[in-house]
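protien #1 (seq + structre)
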Amino acid sequence: MSAFDARTAPVVQPKKLEKKPIKFSNLLLGAGLNMFEVTTLGQPLEVIKTTMAANRTDSFAGALRRIWQRGGVLGYYQGLIPWAWIEASTKGAVLLFVASEAEYYAKSFGASDFVGGISGGMVGGIAQAYATMGFCTCMKTVEITQHKLAAAGVKPPSTFQTFMNIYRKEGIRGINRGVNAVAIRQTTNWGSRFGLSRLAETAIRRATGKDEGQKLGSFEKILASGLGGGLSAWNQPIEVIRVEMQSKTEDPNRPKNLTVGKTLRYIYSQNGVKGLYRGVTPRIGLGVWQTICMVALGDMAKEAVEKLTGDKVTAKH
């Protein structure tokens, strides 16, 4: 290039980083998608997964029979009201707000879109755990695992009696038992789901000959989200540890004052490596359904809201 060409060549300015506003419509969208997910397939898969993780000698069919004997069809929705609904209606808003802030600051320090997105998802997942999910997952697990009382002929206490009994005996710490395991699960969940879904989208674009950044069709989006969600079940041992820490099943061999490390050693000593992966099949199904709802259906919902309002929705799942 000549000196003249160099002087006259246009200077490309770097794209200015803009902080995206958090909109009320985004919060409603996140809460609505979470409520849809948990009320359809989410809670039944959660109950199956938790039952298998708590009863690690049960087969998949055995867990289904155990749940059916506990309450028929309604047994699969145990813990839905109010804990799963409270969790679903709040965790989406928490994830949206915190993840958006974390992504902005990550990019302001020079992170790429990919790294910024994963960073936002991980920080948002941690915030979900400590702000709202800790006590909700604890109470859901308590309700699902206290069925032995009924089997012994003792009528289990109601939802709020259970909550108050734990609070009176153990305080806030008891209500949030297992929250550290929930935090580890959430940060690895959302980091994996965002990252693996985006990698699957890239692979689908290459396979179909689409350019980078070109929009995927609805089926392609659902396929990418399903792959990302299913593969994110690699962290199932953390989920089994969380269930054991929150379980009300009595076992004289179980250590008192469980930590993540103590629980890991206890499960391994009782059930080996297989015990750490109990419930992985329904967990894969749950991960696929959650990610389809929050990534694929979320993108479609955002586009629909955008068309209706004429405003660009900047929600992050």
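ok now protien #2
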Amino acid sequence: MSTAPGTDADPHGHVELSSVTLSAEFVVSDAPASPDVAEYALWLGDDALVLAQRLGMWISRAPELEEDVALANIALDLLGHARSLLRYAGTASDRTEDDLAYWRDEHAFRSAHLFELPNGDFAHTIVRQFAASHYFVELYGRLRASTDPVLAGVAAKAVKEVDYHRDHADQWMRRLALGTDESRRRTVTALADVWPSVAELFQDEPLIDRLEGIAVRPSALRPDFDESLRPVLDETGLELPGTFASAGGGRRGRHSEYLGPLLAELQVLARQHPGASW
């Protein structure tokens, strides 16, 4: 950023943004992704993109200023993961990350229903984040061993960040569950509302059979995921609801009623002003 000379009359000066190359932020490869690898990258990239959009909606609305900043930073971390993964997915079809984020319709997204859930009250957001961050830690921890160098590289960078996200969610789960009667009531209600959508994260799809050694088998993550939740659940006395598990379908383009409105907000500027830059 630079300020042009001769602008003393303007207290703010004339500000020009220097051109910045962002490629160093991403894990890149000269080889394009295969169609199957690209599809898997869409799974992960869409999960991160949709959850980032949801968390970004808390900016200026969080219950305290520090939490406003914390949720914004988590959203930015997830957006970084999404950009790397969507960029890689796009190499299979000569599309950019922006093409995939802004110019796909709802049925072409591959996000799981958990990430599409509305923010609800703060307890609902924290319970969703509790499940999401524990899942991401297990996923990226194993994906580091992928034989695909881009996926392994993204995972190696992401796992450090989602570990902090998990700690943040764990602390808030304790704070809410062990706080007032009202905060505990809201947390129990949020668990009942959110938890049926968790099962979809661990459902195997035929795609995984074609990506042996590259992708992480979702069902293999469930035991360690459940075990990782146990310290917080034991400390707070919370119990996971034993109710039904939702059918899901996001990996096959069958989404909840919540994704369409979210995408309308996410994509509106790009679609109203195609080709715009600033």
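Strands lie at 2-3, 15-16.
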